[in-house]
UniProtKB/TrEMBL annotation:
Similarity-based family: Belongs to the TspO/BZRP family.
Main location: membrane
Transmembrane segments: 58-77, 89-109
Keyword Acetylation included in the entry's annotation: no
Entry keyword set: Membrane, Transmembrane, Transmembrane helix
PANTHER family documented for this protein: PERIPHERAL-TYPE BENZODIAZEPINE RECEPTOR, TRANSLOCATOR PROTEIN
Protein's membrane topology: Multi-pass membrane protein
Pfam family, one: TspO_MBR
Protein's recorded name: Tryptophan-rich protein TspO
One Gene Ontology cellular component annotation held by this UniProt entry: membrane
């Protein structure tokens, strides 16, 4: 199955796919611009030995952002047909989720506040699980498609908390 087949299968509305893609792209760009793993502050952090290698992050996040865009478009399309109010609530939940997603990077790398970033990561993990639950209401497969995002955000919360524990906010 090609990506085109997946897009066709999961989204019958090109404008919805364009909107969810634009929103996730904006989140990805914001996160990328805020991330600075070369800063003196970050290089001085003691990182847990179980942190994935740097290369894992862009690979994982690119995959997850594509998943979020396509699956959210499919969920919104289906919900608009069956429950327009649920579709509106899903759209709001997606917006909140993407804002929390970009916000974590700003809190961690720009504000240099691992404590606050950990709380933000926890909120993002909860929001991601909620988004998967809402997608499941449209189609069980949509919920399963977003489950890896919730799992990764939960992992990121543990990672943030351990970096905070090891280094404090200094």
């Amino acid at each position: 199955m090609t990506i085109r087949d997946l897009v066709r299968r999961f989204s019958s509305s090109p404008s919805t796919l364009a909107a969810t893609s634009a929103a996730t792209l904006a989140t990805a760009v914001t996160g990328s611009l805020a991330t600075d793993v070369e800063s003196r502050w970050y290089r001085r952090r003691e990182l847990p030995p179980w942190q994935p290698p740097r290369l894992a992050f862009p690979i994982v996040w690119t995959t997850l952002y594509a998943d979020i865009a396509v699956t959210s478009a499919a969920s919104l399309t289906r919900l608009r047909q069956t429950d327009p109010r649920a579709a509106r609530r899903f759209g709001v939940a997606l917006g909140v989720n993407l804002a929390a997603n970009a916000g974590w990077t700003v809190l961690f790398f720009r504000a240099r506040r691992p404590s606050v970033a950990t709380v933000g990561a926890l909120a993002l993990a909860a929001s991601s699980a909620d988004l998967a639950r809402r997608a499941s209401a449209a189609d069980r497969a949509h919920g399963w498609a977003l489950a890896p995002y919730a799992v990764w955000c939960t992992f990121a919360t543990a990672l943030s908390a351990d970096i905070w524990r090891r280094n404090g906010d200094g």
